[in-house]
Amino acid sequence: MNHPTDASRASFDALRSRLQEGQRNLRAEYEAHASPSRLLQGRTRLVDGVLAELWQNAGFPDDTALIAVGGYGRGELYPYSDIDLLVLLNEEPSPEQGEHIQHFIGQLWDLGLDIGHSVRTVEACVEEAARDVTIQTNMLESRRLTGSAPLYRRFIAGTTACLDPEAFFHAKRAEQEQRYNRFNQTPYAVEPNCKEGPGGLRDLQNIIWIALASGLGTRWSDLARHGLITPEEVRALRSNERTLQQIRIRLHYIAGRREDRLIFDHQEALAKAFAVKPTKARRASEAMMQRYYLAAKKVTQLNTILLQNLGAQYLPLAAYQAQPINERFHSIGDQLDIVDDQVFERSPSAILEAFLLMEQHAELKGMTVRTLRALWHARKLITPAFRRDPANRALFLRLLQEPRGQTHEFRRLNQYSILGTYLPNFGRIVGQMQHDLFHAYTVDQHILQVLRNVRRFVMEEHAHEYPLITRLANEFDRFWLIFIAALFHDIAKGRGGDHSTLGMADTRRFCRDHGLMKEDSDLVVWLVEHHLTMSQVAQKQDLSNPDVIRKFAALVKTERRLTALYILTHADIRGTSPKVWNGWKAKLLEELFLATRQLLRGNTPDQVLGISERQEVARQKLRFFGLRPDTETPFWKELDTLYFLRHDADEIAWHTRMLYHCPRSETPVVKARPSQVDTGIQVMVYTRDQRELFVRLCGYFARIGYSILDAKIHTTGHGYALDSFVVMDPNANGNYRDMVSLIEHGLTDKLSSESPIDVPASGRVSRQLKHFPIAPSVTLQPDEAGQHFILSIVAADRPGLLFAVAQTLAEHGINLHTAKIATLGERAEDTFLVSSPNLSNTAKTVQLESALIERLKI
């Protein structure tokens, strides 16, 4: 083959201009008509023509071909979609031919196209397709752009011959399940992916791929002709597919690149593009996102129906003999089925009964397509009279009382709009956004996540995660009451006002209507009212203060309430976002629970806080490490009661082992170890007390990119600072052992030298905060004893935030005793125990608060 010659520069420039002008014209036409199909097909035709001409100009041999695959092969090119190409060869390329192909691909990049390409012979294509279902899928939707038609026919014959439709179906279904797992099985993330996420375009493409592999056609009308979907479902598919296409096209244009995530940065612009207007209760972006969630919800419904119908080709339900369950339902294989299409019209109560049977029969893995379709239409039968029917109320309560199945069935109840129809106030929060920067899901999905978490506490396979809670949950009488609290705890979100207070009224009405005993009703209503209280106390108050425990115990009153609140709080925080929950928060909740339980059982505050018990456990640990009896005594004499209150036995033993031999060390002692609670590092600093020590430490941790999760500041009786920290790298992979030595040496050098304090660079504000800014707030109140003050701040979290607070406190002569760091997504809610003679002076207090507010501003 001759080495290729470039097309003339003028010809190449003309092609590039043609491409650019064509894309501008397509966008203008789209803005005028908003037709996604015209845009997607129009860009495909435009690129087809440019590539074919460039291929011809490049002088490729007659026995080669250029093939469009993937989305490009399907004929759907979004504004910034990549161009998937296969250069098909008759034989393995020579080095010269390889250079020729690379030159051609380089020209495509020079045209401004985002190219994904492969170079293969027909034999290599067949081999790769047989080995990798993703490659097989790409080749399934191929088109010949130019080149050898006989070679392309040989390619089609080879790849078709190696295609096993049944194996392909199972592989694509497994692939979808893995994809769903990556997105936590929900389309209701606050920043969903409209292509890959559940309910996204990939769900629709998956159906077409399976249909194509099975020889059932390439269009929704083809599937209807084969009896797999109804004409009504075809209309729904087309409508929701069009909605998703419109959203993805707009996203590409707004971002100016390939972008499939509806991130906060683009949601308001999307709403504007769709001419969605704000209301008094909702932003325009919230209304637009609800439109997306409804489309995604319908797509997941139809995807489920179609996958089951397509799968029936390989494992037809007709092969199974129906097994009667009752006069309304029977099972076919492992599917629940209605005995005829009029079941729900004859007996509307069967709507709820269907979900109850799914909970009661572990052998049932799903519902037949006929049942799912009937349920979707039957939701209209849930009228006020249906809700008032005592039989229906009893059925709904039993859904919460069954020993298994709540997670799957309440998701299914929500998916098919039964839950929101039976509980209209729940229906109001379906698809409702939460712009608090720490919830990762819509309100309804968060509630279902909390319900799932509560359910896991009574499951043996999850007992290893939190053994104490699992034991408490399994010992709790009428555990299903906590399910009700989980279902209602956030049901009043978005109404304006305190959602906990507003939710109490909904909860009380539900309990009364469903015949709960007063004792049970009072518990559930109380849980909804106080579902935020325990996390606030644990994360913001000093748990070593007996008054904090005493006050919390007075609120809780009974051990039953305490246990229920502990379980609900744990489940609630874990259900907000994977980023919000960590082992440190679990430890704080557990400490508060155990201390309060002891107080409620009649122990004194001293017994509750267990100083003598902690010291004894610490001594046992020291003996285990070989320290002789009373080795710790001289060092412990320099530590006051407050130290033993604020540190657990393991920390006390660790500090003692590191310091008993050098209580008057002239050089700083810095020790670190991987956290005993969760990921992160525990750091101990022991040095002669000095001004701005906490500022210096915060500066060091900020400089190396570590966040402080907890800080305990203590001064010994002989003038030494003994400070303890829990720190973590927000971007770490969880392996902290390599950092232990670095921190020990680096921090020791920093404290030993006269070097200036590290001043961290201003942290970059996250993109979420740019769109949903947090107004900083500062409150300063005396504690009940009047000896210390509690400083609470709320601000946008960012690197160096704690350093800014510490520096401001030092500048105003404020002594810091403890720091409780609570980061909720992008929101920092930190609490400090401080003291200073200056805080009794109103003018100086105002100056401090003003200075803090200024430093906390973004």
UniProtKB/TrEMBL annotation:
Keywords recorded for this protein, A-Z: Hydrolase, Magnesium, Multifunctional enzyme, Nucleotidyltransferase, Repeat, Transferase
Cofactors, names only: Mg(2+)
Phylogenetic placement of the source organism: Bacteria, Pseudomonadati, Pseudomonadota, Betaproteobacteria, Rhodocyclales
Pfam family, one: NTP_transf_2
Known EC number: 2.7.7.59, 3.1.4.-
Recorded catalytic activity of this chain's protein: [protein-PII]-L-tyrosine + UTP = [protein-PII]-uridylyl-L-tyrosine + diphosphate; [protein-PII]-uridylyl-L-tyrosine + H2O = [protein-PII]-L-tyrosine + UMP + H(+)
Domain of life according to the entry: Bacteria
Name recorded for this polypeptide: Bifunctional uridylyltransferase/uridylyl-removing enzyme
